[in-house]
Amino acid sequence: MNFNFKNENQSLTKYTFLNYLKGDFFAWLTDDNNYLKAAQQYEDLKKLSYYRYKRLKNKNLNISEFELPTTIIDGNDVSDWSKKYYINKYQKDNFKIYDFSLEELGFDNLVKKTFEIMQKEKNFILFEGAFVYNGFKIRTDVIINKNGKFKLCEVKAITNCLEYHALDIMFQAKILQKNGYDIDNWILKLTILNNNFKLFQNKEDLQINELIEFNLLNLFQEHDRYFNSKPKDLKKAIEEGKGFLIREIFNHQDYFEIFNDFDNFLEKIKINQKKDKLPKKDHFEGRNFNYLDSEYFPFFLKYMGISDEKSIFLLGGDSWFNNKRKGNFFNIGIKNIDQIENLQLISNLSTQKLEENIKNFLKVKDFNILKNKNFINFLNKNNNSKKFKRIIQKNAILSNENFILNYKILNHLQIYKKVIYMYDFETVSQAIPRVKNMSTYEQVPYQYSIHIILDKDDFDFKSGKNIIHLEWLAKDNKDFYEDFWSNFTKDMQKYGPGSYVSYNKQFEKTIISNYINRVEYKKKDKFSFLLKIYEETLDMMEPFANYWYYSPDFLGSYSIKVVGPHFVPDISYKDLDIRVQKGDQSAKQAKIWLIQNNSYYDDNWLNVRNAMLKYCCYDTLLMVAIFQRLKEFIAQYNYDFELLISEINFATKNI
């Protein structure tokens, strides 16, 4: 056995290894001392992970649950229930249970205790075992010894097994191997949440936690395979033998040299971590593109000197024009959008299908191509404006003018009926559901806002003329799911029939669909009307998602948080309570207060409840404002359809 009980000042963990695969920049920041040094120098870095900064600045500070990221809340929840799952699963075997997450001993002492158990004990379950090799410390979620046969399980609060997760557990396996354990004979499993789990109310007299325990053995699944991308049906894909064996990651072409020359690779990481300052490069390493989920990626771009206003990373992405392709452009010197050719923004297949006159036209470098009638005719056909969105983005940014397809917007606005219901849902999801009959990570609605325009030809969002606002937010967790739908169906009929409108309608439609597809909930009075809303809902996002209207202000986004303030600068989410300025912040408050907290009626809850109501109100108020501004803008032009088809107009930024 190889042990190193020396207390290292430097923090080296599996996350250091995994982040080094993204790049030395990301690995360097995993060390707390390095991060703190950089965060004190760069304000942007501090803001990206303020929870971490606050914790490190005052290690004795008691961080409240309200400041924890939701991923940590869910992760802790899954960790706690996974222990109950394994204890329940092996209860007939009378295994000894060791849980080192409850120990307050130092890491070195935990390593010694782990070693003793691994050597002497048989038939045990060990949670949070501690191992170290060459300064790298790991904590294993679950190790099971059954009659001398070892099993290593890595628990994840996820519903899919991806390459990143396979690397996680195999790094641990390699550390165990370096400590002398024969991992070739170990069972290696990723323990994830069952995507088909539902918190069935199969025992009327049971409380929520008792219900979870009753359904516990169905909550988790163990898998020995991983996938490069999420399969639509994980269970079916596993049964069909698709994917890759987790232990085969050692032989993966991208990682073979790493695991084959493991000690040298660890030394490279250690050298990187000891650098005096944040590593800076003028190019991207290939591995940087494998995992772009890092919270520090926006800062990484800025730190590399990539312009916020003209970076090619601002251009809309998809499966073809992904960050890897953008990074490769960057590496060959094409860093800003004024350096990239129009034809480089579309795939070879799309280029081949283009008419020669359009193809030749796109070779022109002058951004005034957006004023050419032939090109506008082309963009008006077959939703080409969305297919060629990056060309629109690039040239609108370079011209610093708004791009508008009047004909498309006019057609969209004419669909709306006299009375319009603008509605928005706020939802919360949990790794382990706390609402009966809900699934893992299912979005559960707890709040809605509705702005009703009583006459689309005679209203004003500022004065409130012919506009009604209705809202609902759960007061406590007692049957709020049913109460939500009862109130919503009532309010959406209060002023007679009309158009039903949301922003990004697919989200609201999914929430409605989840409800009406529950057979036991198909109450006739609700079901038929909700089905009508589901089928008829229009999307206020459509003009922006399809690039019928694009402003350089949008920076490649068509979120209502970006589009709304462009039209109505005096309505800003930044003016709201700092605790609830984004949807995920509102959801976190709902998760803590409505689902996990019993103090429903104290002053803190009433205070944050008012902030949540105002936040949701902003979403639908901005929808009304956007609708009004688009109508006012289109009204300036003659509705000559032949003219509109061949015309493009540029407006000033503040219309």
Short overview:
This protein is of the alpha/beta class. The protein folds into four domains: 14-67 and 273-280, no CATH class; 70-260, no CATH class; 306-401, no CATH class; 415-545 and 558-633, Ribonuclease H-like superfamily/Ribonuclease H (Nucleotidyltransferase, domain 5), CATH 3.30.420. The chain is built from 28 helices and 15 strands.
What does this 3D model show about the protein?
By secondary structure, this protein is of the alpha/beta class. It folds into four domains: 14-67 and 273-280, no CATH class; 70-260, no CATH class; 306-401, no CATH class; 415-545 and 558-633, Ribonuclease H-like superfamily/Ribonuclease H (Nucleotidyltransferase, domain 5, 2-Layer Sandwich). The chain is 43% helix and 13% strand. It contains 28 helices and 15 strands. Strands 1-2-3-4-5-6 form a six-stranded mixed sheet. A five-stranded mixed sheet has the order 12-11-10-13-14, sandwiched between helices. Strands 7-8 form a two-stranded antiparallel ribbon. A hairpin with a 2-residue loop joins strand 3 and strand 4. Helix 1 packs antiparallel against helix 2, helix 1 (14-22) crosses helix 8 (163-178) and helix 22 runs antiparallel to helix 23 (524-536). It is globular and about 85 Å long. This is DUF2779 domain-containing protein. It comes from Candidatus Hepatoplasma crinochetorum Av. InterPro entries: DUF2779. Residues 421-559 form the DUF2779 domain.
